[in-house]
Amino acid sequence: MIMRDRELVSALRSGDVSAARACGLLFDAHGARLYRRCRSMLGDHGAAVTALRDTFVVARAHIDQLGDPRRLAEWLSAIADTECERLRAAVEAADTPRWEEDQTVFPVASLRVRVLTGATAPELAAYHARVARRADRFDRAGFPLPPRCQRPVPPSSYLLPGLIIVACALALTALVVIEMAGLSSQPLTAWMTRPPHTAG
Length: 200
Fold this sequence. Notes:
Structural class: mainly alpha
Largest sheet: none
Number of helices: 8
Strand content: under 5%
Number of domains: 2
Distance between the termini: 95 Å
Shape: elongated
């Protein structure tokens, strides 16, 4: 029996269902529709399965983000669109050939097994965690932001350490130049090693 969306959201949020059961409920209610959506966007069965698998991983990990349970179908579609866009961008960035249009029809039962196996296999736990972590930006209604709208890494996080090193190197170079040019009243090494003055 297929659950209604509000019941499905409640079951997923309860934490009482296993990963396999949760993804199975999602697939039974929305899997076929989402697969057709992914395939229409990507034009390839294998790519559509990958996007659908990741859609369920993200949905299960971030179900608490959904503000209105009645919008579950819309929310899942938004996640699927985001995952398709992410997958398509990865293919383009890798400069690999685009998928060719494939009109082959696959049985829903075999599709269900393949998607759920990929979305719940324990040996893929690290991959599932990475998929859930990369899709952690949502709008106020709980809908995922497209990859191009997600927050970039602040430049300061990787520029500041390098700038500090450069500044230290420049300061040291300036001191050496001053000593070599004779602009210092005494050798730099003597100044650096002079014992502190003590009162007699």
